[in-house]
Specification:
Chain lengths: 171, 215
């Protein structure tokens, strides 16, 4: 893979992360371009830090916070609940067939808080561990685990409601 | 949610986000920018994808700077103007020149000083507290003015009262009472005219009524 392909992959990855923050493609594209420009024009003294994926994501995140003010992104309610991580895979069973199409995900993800969507994206899509997400987003690991758990729960609830609606429409 | 559902959710989310991608044009443009790494310019940094927004921002900044500069100069000019008028009044007062027209009634004095193009009627509080002794022509900031000698009825101190037409320039001077050297000066505007009352500071008494609000 040549340099440009690496950079393109980095751009696309950053764009998807920006989508998880903004949940709007146009805004995400703006954010990516702003972050890209910022990194491309770093001071020579800052160039020792290579253009890594984490640096790009952190830059995107900082710009997002700057743009939308911290109070829209930071966690305002306590999330450091005990045993949050232990509950990740022990939610009440949902045996329904999960038919999650794009449209449903679009709507469901919109109801998540930004920090929940961000944590779920980094963990489930990018494959970062909770500890890595915690480091990247400057939160505690327990907070990240709680965010992921709550986000998942909301998505499942949205799916349940959607299924009920479909059933009622079929009656 | 069990592990299987988690996997399905994860897979669906991956699929959902994989479908989101920057257009080829955007990628090409960004890569080109990364390769050139030109020094940042204000417009490109601010405007980037929206040059008009950047331009508007710069224009706004320019307007703010210009307005601030204008206000600063205006304030500075106003301060200078006030200082000049105070200096002029104090200097004329210190000359202690005799009245050329020795009339004690404002209406009569006005008739004598025909070059004046503004009324010479005095404010009620001035008439109440001071006795007119006479007047002469003078100028304040290039404008024709009347320099009247008045005596404080209570203290006997002789003051100089300046009256001139309220020009746009003089209208910028706020009402105030200041000590200019050894001269106590009050400035105010009333009935379309500009007034200045100068008294030797040593003769100014706090009970002489000069500080009272004017009608």
């Amino acid at each position: 893979m040549d340099k440009d392909n690496n950079l393109e992959a980095l751009l696309q990855s950053g764009f998807r992360y920006a989508c998880s923050l903004t949940h709007q493609q146009a805004e995400a594209e703006d954010l990516v371009q702003e972050a890209w420009l910022k990194l491309a024009r770093r001071k020579p003294s800052d160039r020792h830090q290579s253009l890594s994926k984490s640096l790009f994501l952190i830059t995107l995140r900082n710009l997002y916070i700057d743009r939308y003010r911290r109070n829209r992104l930071v966690v305002l309610e306590p999330l450091d609940e005990p045993l949050a991580g232990a509950e990740l895979n022990n939610e009440p069973g949902n045996e329904q067939e999960i038919a999650m199409d794009i449209e449903w995900l679009e709507r469901s993800l919109a109801i998540l808080r930004v920090e929940e969507r961000e944590a779920i994206y980094l963990h489930l899509v990018e494959g970062y561990t909770a500890a890595e997400v915690a480091e990247l987003t400057e939160r505690s690991r327990n907070t990240v685990l709680s965010l992921i758990r709550r986000g998942r729960k909301k998505l499942v609830n949205a799916l349940d409601q959607s299924a009920v609606t479909v059933l009622r429409q079929g009656e | 949610m069990n592990t299987q559902d988690n996997d399905k959710l994860g897979a669906s989310l991956k699929d959902y986000y994989q479908r989101k991608s920057l257009s080829a044009d955007s990628v090409e443009r960004l890569l080109a920018q990364a390769n050139t790494e030109k020094p940042a310019t204000l417009l490109s940094t601010i405007g980037f994808r929206r040059p008009l927004v950047g331009l508007a921002w710069v224009a706004s900044l320019f307007v703010v700077v210009m307005v601030a500069q204008f206000l600063y100069h205006q304030q500075s000019h106003q301060n200078n103007l006030t200082a000049l008028v105070l200096e002029e009044i104090a200097m004329n007062h210190n000359k202690k020149l005799d009245a050329e027209y020795r009339e004690t009634q404002p209406e009569v004095l006005r008739m004598a000083m025909q070059r004046l193009d503004f009324p010479l009627s005095l404010p009620e509080d001035i008439q109440r507290d001071f006795q007119l002794l006479g007047g002469r022509y003078c100028s304040i900031q290039g404008g024709l003015a009347a320099q009247l000698k008045v005596r404080n009825r209570a203290t006997g101190a002789v003051s100089t009262l300046y009256v001139t037409e309220l020009t746009e320039k003089l209208a910028r001077i706020e009402e105030q009472q200041v000590l200019q050297g050894s001269v106590d000066i009050q400035l105010w505007q009333q009935q379309g005219r500009f007034f200045g009352l100068a008294t030797d500071a040593a003769l100014v008494s706090r009970d002489d009524g000069q500080d009272e609000n004017r009608e």
